[in-house]
Amino acid sequence: MEGHYKHIGDDGGNYKHLNGVSALCKHLVDDGKDYKHLNGVSSSSKSDEVVCNGACGAGETEIPDVPTELESNTVILEDGNGEQIEDDGTEKEEEEVDPWSLLPDLQSNQPKWSELTTCGKVKRILIGWILKPFLIFVFVYFFIVSLALMGDAFTLIGGSAAGAALSDATLLENPITGLMVGMLVTVLLQSSSATTSIIVAMVAANMIEVEEAIPMVMGANLGTSVTNTIVAGGQAGDRDTFRLSFAGATVHDCFNWLAVLVLLPLELATGYLYNLTSAIVEGSNLESFGSDDRVKITDPVVNKIIQIDMEVLEGIALGLLEPGEKSLVDRWCECEDVYYNTTVFASVNGTNYTGVVEVYNYTIYIERCDFLFAHCDLADQIIGVILLVMSLILLMGCLLGIVKVLGSMLRGSAANATKRLLNANFPGYLSWLTGYVAILLGAFFTMLLQSSSVFTSMLTPLVGMRVITLARMYPLTLGANLGTTFTSLLAAFASSDSQDFEEGVQIALCHLFFNLTAIVIFYPIPFMRRPPIGGAKFLGNTTAVYRWFSLAYLLIVFLALPITVLLLSIAGDIYVGIFLIIVGTIAFVVITIKILQAKCPCCLPKFMRTWDFLPKFMRSLEPYDSVIKKCMVGCGKCKAKCRCKNSSEDKEEVTSDVKSVFSEKDVEMVVKNGYEMQTLGDNDGLDNPMFTVESEIESTNNGITT
């Protein structure tokens, strides 16, 4: 039952309704006391005057003074059975829910199978067991298709620029620049396998050495995680879901960056990867097993929309073609090159020789390919933008469908069984093997899908839905890193050119051992798992508070940073060194102070035990958040002004219409009386007035509003 209180005096008192008794009490005395309604009886000190209505009687009854004195903190109450209850006046705090844990076990609200009618059983089989799994399969398939289309879109938009960046061999002599180039090219192409294949072609053409290609392969490993970070943005509607999905996506980034920070200096100092892979290639009798006839599961759909000629990219990277000289869209399936014969004269040791050689003249295009953009003669960049919009719409639609259908399926016992299956550990002493099995599963599914980006992007929504924990996502991500190296190995072994074959295998082995070494460092020892998982949680928590941080993270890490390093490399390697020294010094100082603040604050001066000694914009994102909010509010005000302007114009049009019907005298009378004219429908016509008068008259009488 509810208790209704009307407090007339301003005394700051604390009123509580206990034991479910309803009452209407009026406190008329301003004395600053605390009052409690106990078992339907109001109690106060002797100086209090209380009138109780409701539980105290049908009419107003004055309650005599209660001699019992109540302590300010503890009250002894009696329930309906006469038993005493102790109330200390404090409310129990709600138990905090761990945002990184799985959802608690859910109770199914659906009737049991035995309780269903025949029609209900048929409906559950058709919808729950057939239709919904089929919809999940369709959504997942087209989700993968959207990722493939997004990769092709980025290739069309920035492929020529990526090839041009790779064609400047002088820039790639700097390992840091090579790292950033590999990362940027992978971001633009949305495929580390494509980047690796271009690097292999460059090594085979003697444009760069294998030692210079290794940092580029590491950069390709960094850039491949941008796709699932974009996918995480599709769950930005809910803060907790976005926290989990963004952390699940960026745990891949954190692992890759930590691997580069450890292994790139090691490689530069010792040549570990180069020497190891050289020994394997030279000491093995490796043979090619023919052409690469791999077919992706998305090819039947993607090839009907767009087809990319990757040989053009390789030609740009090798310097054989100029950017924009030839379209990346493979529009012609049948064409023929026309050559002409020319006589060549040569003199060797005083002897003259003549010969006839064929020189390329032009190309005859015979038949166009059969896909959507084959008959479109737009520029590659415009087609890429159109394709990017299409892929993003398809991606968000499929992501929404997956989340909705999975949410409807994962209820009650089904949800609990799925969570236990995906996050279960082996029993007893074998529990430590669970993570390694997850790594193998991640590698297997990545080899099956032929893309680590696709596999991790499929897992990201499940982390946001709390079906998979971040701790389980981590080994699956490591397995995805391994799986994509097997894909590049398969492509290298399928090469028919002997020189291309050996160097391609060596670079693919560098990619493999880079990831294997990183896994050995950051997974077997539980303590070493904390940096990547902790970094992902930090990014997830930050994004949950400031949602714009996800976009800023993408732009800074995957675009601004590599572009800045490239520009500095063009100016000179000395500028890259200065930039790295500044960034490294700041990072070292911040990490050191952070560790000392947590472990040994007494070692620091008092002012450095917190970050308050720094300006707020250097220690918090709040100032930037306030600026962004002001900009958004400003945009909202502009929209509101536009709406107000449009509404005022509409009112002026209505007034002019009314003036055209009524005389000026009638209009002046209406305006004078403060009424608002409104036009009626055409059917109201001549039988009714052409306007209605709606007014709200407010009069104040002794402070009472009527």
SSE topology sketch:
Blueprint: E1 4-7, E2 15-17, E3 24-27, E4 35-38, E5 41-43, E6 50-54, E7 57-62, E8 75-78, E9 84-87, H1 118-167, H2 175-189, H3 192-204, H4 210-223, H5 226-232, H6 239-270, H7 272-282, H8 299-302, H9 310-317, E10 332-348, E11 351-368, H10 380-409, H11 412-423, H12 434-449, H13 452-464, H14 470-493, H15 498-522, H16 530-545, H17 548-571, H18 573-599, H19 616-619, H20 622-661, H21 664-672, E12 700-701, E13 704-705
Parallel strand pairs: 1-3, 2-4
Antiparallel strand pairs: 3-6, 4-5, 6-7, 8-9, 10-11, 12-13
Characterization of the model:
Belongs to the SLC34A transporter family. Its main location: membrane. Keywords: Cell membrane, Membrane, Transmembrane, Transmembrane helix. This is Sodium-dependent phosphate transport protein 2B-like. It is a multi-pass membrane protein. This protein is of the alpha+beta class and 706 residues long. 56% of the residues lie in helices and 11% in strands. The chain is built from 21 helices and 13 strands. It has helices at 118-167, 175-189, 192-204, 210-223, 226-232, 239-270, 272-282, 299-302, 310-317, 380-409, 412-423, 434-449, 452-464, 470-493, 498-522, 530-545, 548-571, 573-599, 616-619, 622-661, 664-672; strands spanning 4-7, 15-17, 24-27, 35-38, 41-43, 50-54, 57-62, 75-78, 84-87, 332-348, 351-368, 700-701, 704-705. The protein has a four-stranded mixed beta sheet with strand order 1-3-6-7, with no helix packed on it. A three-stranded mixed beta sheet has the order 2-4-5, with no helix packed on it. Strands 8-9 form a two-stranded antiparallel ribbon. The chain is globular. Residues 1-95 and 670-706 have low confidence and may be disordered.
